[in-house]
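Sequence, please.
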């Protein structure tokens, strides 16, 4: 079938004929764009990305996997391995040239495996991109008609037919441009609700609240925090080079604490629900740092602390509390930060 345009003078019926020959790059691009535009890709991608960024901010580097997964949804890259597998199985079928014949009544597509006739009423709309025309059925997919190798006048005629049928708009409306943002906003809302629920649930059984924020200024770090612990409560604050500490633990085990040079400890006192500590990191290697704030109950704590949690700390509970063989029930709050060059 050759590329041409036929016009019946009596009926003003225009028939467009051309051959669409997709390449692997066209198929990859098309499926990636479908995912980028899909409500599922936008909503899930936004949700996974946001819920991964928050743990990463607090030092959970494993959540980078979740971040990459979320970005793959938003960019459409997530679909590419599945496209690759499909092409690997039936490349001849997926990349087979398609002879297209279109008129005001419908669309006929012919390949080596057969011919299909589709009425225009099947399609909800059409989009034109730099590479192709995409006919949307409204069922989550799209029919791809690649422009590669098609004469300019044939493309113009087919475009005019789609506009005549009301499938292809000449201008993109503001509503069409903003529609993807609705799904992004939905993903943000769901992630906020889920993260808020997790935080609320994790704190439901806590008998004490403590949070800290490290602030770096050159080779100096300040740790400021808030808590509901009584005034006079003593806290132990450690600051250390996190990356090298992990390596030392892996190679030396418990003996690492005896020789590790890039760690410092200080004491902070709670006053009016706040505490403050500082550490000097002069000479420390650049990289990831960590601040750890500890609280446990012993004879050095004020009487108000012992009355609230018991002399042995048995009343201290929560997601940040663990049982230490030396200090008993102990609350520990870690916050990561970057040590500059």
């Amino acid at each position: 079938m050759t590329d041409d345009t036929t016009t019946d003078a009596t009926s003003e019926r225009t028939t467009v004929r051309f051959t669409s020959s997709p390449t692997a790059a066209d198929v990859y691009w098309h499926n990636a764009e479908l995912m980028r535009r899909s409500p599922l890709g936008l909503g899930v991608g936004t949700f996974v990305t946001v819920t991964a960024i928050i743990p990463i901010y607090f030092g959970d580097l494993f959540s980078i996997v979740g971040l990459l997964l979320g970005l793959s949804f938003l960019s459409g890259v997530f679909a590419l391995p599945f496209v690759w597998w499909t092409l690997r199985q039936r490349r001849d079928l997926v990349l087979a040239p398609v002879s297209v014949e279109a008129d005001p009544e419908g669309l006929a597509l012919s390949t080596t495996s057969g011919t299909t006739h589709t009425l225009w009423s099947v399609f909800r709309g059409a989009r034109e991109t730099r590479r192709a025309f995409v006919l949307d059925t409204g069922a989550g997919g799209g029919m791809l008609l690649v422009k590669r190798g098609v004469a300019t006048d044939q493309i113009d005629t087919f475009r005019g037919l789609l506009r005549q049928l009301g499938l292809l708009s000449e201008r993109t409306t503001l509503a069409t441009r903003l529609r993807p943002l609705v799904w992004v906003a939905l993903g943000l809302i769901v992630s906020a609700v889920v993260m808020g629920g997790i935080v609320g649930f994790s704190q439901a059984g806590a008998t004490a609240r403590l949070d800290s924020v490290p602030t770096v200024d050159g080779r100096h770090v300040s740790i400021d925090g808030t808590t509901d612990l009584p005034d006079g409560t003593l806290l132990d604050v450690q600051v250390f080079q996190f990356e090298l500490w992990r390596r030392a633990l892996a190679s030396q085990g418990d003996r690492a604490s005896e020789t590790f040079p890039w760690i410092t400890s200080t004491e902070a006192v709670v006053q009016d629900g706040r505490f403050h500590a500082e550490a000097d990191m002069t000479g420390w290697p650049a990289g990831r740092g960590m601040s750890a704030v500890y609280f446990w109950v012993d004879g050095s704590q004020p009487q108000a602390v012992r009355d609230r949690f018991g002399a042995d700390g048995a009343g201290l509970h929560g997601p940040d509390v663990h049982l230490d063989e030396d200090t008993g029930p102990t609350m520990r709050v870690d916050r990561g930060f970057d040590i500059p060059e």
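The longest strand covers residues 328-339.
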